[in-house]
């Protein structure tokens, strides 16, 4: 976790319920005075729902980035 924090990256914690993932993330963020967000995944959520995707626009010949989650 510390390597990702120092590199300015993101972290995905995946494990069984009740092992303290949220508590650990909150502790790291409070200790380093960082912003912390939590996303609750369900079986029908895909990574592209969170990160968005690139779409080719034939008319302009460009790629556009689309992300509904972070547009809010």
Features:
disordered C terminus; alpha+beta; two-stranded antiparallel sheet; 72 residues; 3 helices
Can you walk through the features of this model?
The protein is an alpha+beta fold. Helices cover 29% and strands 14% of the residues. The chain has a two-stranded antiparallel sheet. It is elongated, with a radius of gyration of 16 Å. It starts with a helix and ends in a 6-residue tail after the last strand. Residues 68-72 have low confidence and may be disordered.
Q: Can you summarize this structure?
A:
The protein has 72 residues and is α+β, with helices and mostly antiparallel strands. Helix content is 29%, strand content 14%.
Which secondary structure elements does this structure contain, and how are they paired or packed?
Layout lengths: L1 H5 L14 H11 L15 H5 L1 E5 L4 E5 L6
Main sheet attributes: strand count, strand direction, barrel closure: 2 strands, antiparallel
Query: Which structural class fits the helix and strand makeup?
Result: alpha+beta
Report the strand count.
Answer: 2
Large-scale geometry: elongated
* N-to-C CA distance: 27 Å
The strand order across the widest sheet is 1-2
- Percentage of helical residues? 25-40%
Low-confidence stretches: 68-72
The helix count comes to: 3
Assembly state of the chains shown: single chain
Order of helices and strands: HHHEE
Mean pLDDT: 79
**Rg measurement, Å:** 16 Å
Strand content: 5-15%
